[in-house]
Structure formats: C-alpha cells, structure tokens
Design a protein that fits this description.
- The complex is a heterotrimer of chains A (213), B (137) and C (91).
- Chain A is of the alpha+beta class.
- Chain A has a domain at 84-179 and 186-210.
- Chain A contains 5 helices and 10 strands, in the order H-H-H-H-H-E-E-E-E-E-E-E-E-E-E.
- In chain A, a hairpin with a 6-residue loop joins strand 8 and strand 9 (186-191).
- The longest helix of chain A is centred in the first third of the chain and has 17 residues, at 2-18.
- Chain A is elongated and about 75 Å long.
- In chain A, 24% of the residues are buried.
- Chain B is built from 2 helices and 5 strands; from the N terminus they run E-H-E-E-E-H-E.
- In chain B, strand 1 (23-30), helix 1 (38-54) and strand 2 form a beta-alpha-beta unit.
- Chain B starts with 22 loop residues before the first strand and ends in a 20-residue tail after the last strand.
- Chain C is an alpha+beta fold and 91 residues long.
- Chain C has a single domain, classed as Ribosomal protein L30/L7 (Ribosomal Protein L30, Chain: A, 2-Layer Sandwich).
- Chain C has a 3-stranded antiparallel sheet, with no helix packed on it.
- Classes of the chains: A alpha+beta (213), B alpha+beta (137), C alpha+beta (91).
- The interface between A and C is medium-sized, with 39 and 22 residues.
- Strand 3 (117-119) of chain A pairs antiparallel with strand 5 (116-117) of chain B.
Chain lengths: 213, 137, 91
C-alpha cells in the first residue's frame, strides 16, 4: 500500500521536477512575446525605434512578434491618398466573381484562391488547429481580367486574406542509405518533416470607399 | 422531359465557413503494474485532466490494458485511426504524442511536391488561340 | 560620427597575401559578411586596397549583428487574428 502511494507521488512529481522554468517553455511563447514587446522600446534608443517604424517593410519581424497583430497606423486610408488607377480600377477587379492572390509567408510566394489548401514547408510554432491567421503580405491580387501588382507588396488595407490552421501533417519517413564504394558498411539516415496545413478561408478585395483602417 | 439531378455536388472543405477538428476520439490505454506505463500513468494523473478540458470536441476514453505497453489511439472523422505506442516515455513526451494525434488529419501520410491544393476552377481561364486579338505573322 | 558599412561581395580566393591581409584586418571572413568601421583614413586605405571586392556605404551608426540579420530576413507575412478556443495546454 505504502509503495503504491509512493509510486503515485513520484509519478505526479515527475512533470514538475523535469520541467524547465515556465518562461522557457514553448507553450508560453505568446505570453513571453507580449512582455518582450513591451520591454523593447524602453531598452532601445528612440532613434532605432523610429528607424524600425519607418522601414517597416524592410525590417523583418521575428516569428514571435508576428504572432501578435502589428500596431496599425492610425491615419485612415482615404481614396485621395491612393493612386488614381487603384481607385478607378479596384472596384472593377472587386466586381469580378473570383479572385486569386499571391501571399508571401516568410518570403515565399503562394498563389491561392479562397478554399485552397496550403501545406507550408515548415511547422509553424505556436499555433493550434482552429487558429485564424490573417495573411497581410501579398504581391499580386487578381481576377479574370484585372491584376493589381504590388511594389513590392500590395497595400495590406486593399485586401483581406484569412487562413485557418487545419493541423499538422507529416511526410512518410525518408530513408537515405549512406554507403561508400568497396566498403560493405551501410548506414541508414531517417528523417520525417512536419508541415502545417492551412485552408484559405477568405480572399476579399476592399472597397475603396469603406476601406478598413 | 426527364428529371436530371444536379451534377455539381458540394464538396466539404474544412475551414471554409466552419472548422471541425478531425480527431474525434482518443483512447488512452495503460497498465498499472508495468514499468513502461510509468510515464503514461503520470500523464493520466497530472496532465490529462487539463488536456481533456482544453479539447471539449474530442471524446476521451481511458482504460487499462494489463500486461501490455501503453498506447494512445486517435480516431478520426474519416473513419481511420492512428495508434502510437508510448512505452517508457515521460509524461511530457506522452503529451507531445497526444498533440500529434490531435493535429493529424487522419489521412495516410503522403509526399507532396506542390504546396497549394486547389479544387477551384482557374481564375484566369485557359488560354485559347481562337479568341482575342490573335497573333500577326 | 559616421561609419563605413562594408560588405564583402566577391571572394578573395586567388588574390595576393597582402589583399587578403587587408580583408582580414577589416574583419571580413566570408562573402556577404557586413562589418562597420568608423570613417577614418586608416580604414579608407584598407577599403581602397580591396575596392573591387567590397560594397561600401556610409551610415550614421553601426548596426549590431542582430540588426543586420533582421534587415535580410523577409517579413513573416501573417499574424494570428483569432486564436482557437482551447487546444493550448498550460503547464
């Protein structure tokens, strides 16, 4: 009886004792990022912060900060601030029935339409099935007869593209046999990559009048 | 005039509109006596209550399987199931395996070369030499 | 104070020892490596020695290694708009 009790206590303790401190655990990444975001501006000089904000397109956000929505500018995008060709032609593009969009995720382009399944070439950390992602970097946005090209990116207020995380898939185990000539020794190397699968749930073109801020 | 059935059948695309987790049920089998079940027993006692509470859409079943290694079985909406043997694993490793089963789609693993799978018709249509301006020779 | 931003664009393979020495003293070991040095005749001379191999800009302040890397990395291109309910097991 006492041995069973001791064993159950030991089993209960195992996760606690083997754990690294909570702030090192990957599951707390979200929490960890939010704190770092608050801390960053105070520790860096103002000039850097300004430079980073100005060169928003060139400065790459690391993945943790990408999980939280970026702070959007407060000034609304009025039709006057847009290129006249966009204000005239975008409604025509939006009026056509189906659209495609070339979204960039970590710099790689994927040409998708609404309802497509997208298997990313990596496992996205920190997301679980059912999460809704907003894809905000696109180079082209098109319909049957019109194409909006970005330079290099399309203004992210001109479209709404959302994806749902479906889960994680894996490939069949790869076996690579390492063998040298005239030597009988063989070694097998195994690898199995994991991929995050998304479903593009929505591709919407904004209307110039009621563009979201 | 005969009645003709609609040819277009709507295909289910998970995530368009509603998202449904593909894993519907998880079985956890353990053995009270065997040492290979030690981590699994710790998992069931300490981690599983929280794991189950976080997934109301999955049915959880815990049952003993004496004199056998501990296994987790995931049942999926497409009727398939996946089994993972978790012998001699720590509770956290078992949690990783449970998460793997939760995120799987139940399909057989396939090697694909193209990232995008689409069932939509082409947006731009198919190019035809008989339409449009034509080429001047 | 301004700085030279020096990026090694072409390899120094097959070049004389003195040219390679100039690269070494600039701190350039591999292609597309970036170093920062203050604007000073000493560094200007070294750059002149290897001017065919490097690309030079003048900047106001030196960037750290992290910042140089961040410049090169593309944007993630997504953020989580709505997290799924449940699914995350806190430990």
């Amino acid at each position: 009886m006492s041995r069973a009790l001791l064993r159950s206590v030991l089993e209960l303790r195992t996760p606690v004792t083997r754990l690294p401190p909570t702030f090192l655990l990957p599951i707390r990444a979200r929490f960890f990022n939010q704190t770092s975001q608050i801390v960053e501006p105070t520790s860096t000089p103002e000039s850097i912060v300004n430079a980073v904000q100005q060169s928003q397109q060139t400065s790459a956000t690391s993945l943790p900060s990408s999980l939280t929505p970026p702070q959007q500018e407060t000034n609304p995008l009025s039709p006057a601030s847009l290129d006249p060709s966009i204000t005239t032609l975008l409604p025509l593009l939006a009026a056509q029935p189906s659209h495609y969009i070339t979204v960039h995720i970590h710099g790689r382009p994927y040409l998708v339409t609404a309802g497509d399944q997208l298997r990313l070439p990596f496992k996205m950390p920190g997301v679980v099935p059912g999460d809704i992602l907003r894809l905000n970097r696109a180079t082209t946005l098109g319909s049957r007869d019109f194409t909006l090209k970005g330079a290099p990116y399309v203004d992210e207020r001109l479209f709404e593209c959302r994806a749902v995380v479906l889960g994680t898939e894996a490939e069949p185990m790869r076996v690579m046999v390492k063998k040298k000539r005239r030597c009988r020794r063989k070694k097998s190397v195994f690898s199995k990559h994991k991929y995050t699968v998304l479903r593009i749930s929505e591709v919407k073109v904004a209307r110039v009048g009621e563009m979201e801020v | 005039m005969t009645v003709v059935a609609l040819k277009q059948i709507s295909t289910a695309r998970n995530g368009v509109g509603a998202f449904i987790l593909q894993c519907k049920k998880m079985d956890f089998h353990y053995c009270d006596w065997a040492g290979s079940s030690k981590g699994m027993n710790g998992f069931i006692k300490s981690v599983l209550p929280r794991f189950a509470a976080a997934h109301p859409q999955i049915e959880f079943q815990v049952s003993p399987r004496p004199s056998k290694h501990p296994v987790i079985i995931g049942h999926y909406i497409n009727g398939k199931k996946k089994t993972i043997c978790v012998r001699n694993m720590e509770p956290l490793q078992v949690l990783k395996k449970a998460e793997l089963l939760r995120e799987a789609s139940g399909e057989k693993l396939k090697r694909t070369t193209k990232p995008v799978t689409s069932s939509n018709p082409s947006v731009r249509g198919i190019w035809s030499p008989f339409h449009g301006e034509g080429l001047k020779v | 104070m301004s700085y030279f931003r020096i990026t090694l664009h072409r390899s120094a393979i097959g070049l004389p020892e003195r040219t390679r020495g100039a690269l070494a003293s600039l701190g350039l070991r591999r292609r597309s490596q970036t170093v920062f040095h203050p604007v000073h005749p000493q560094f200007a001379g070294m750059i002149m020695k290897v001017k065919e191999l490097v690309r030079v800009e003048e900047v106001d302040r030196p960037l750290s290694k992290k910042e140089v890397k961040a410049e090169r990395q593309p944007d993630a291109g997504f953020y989580v708009e709505k997290a799924a309910e449940g699914g995350r097991v806190g430990l």
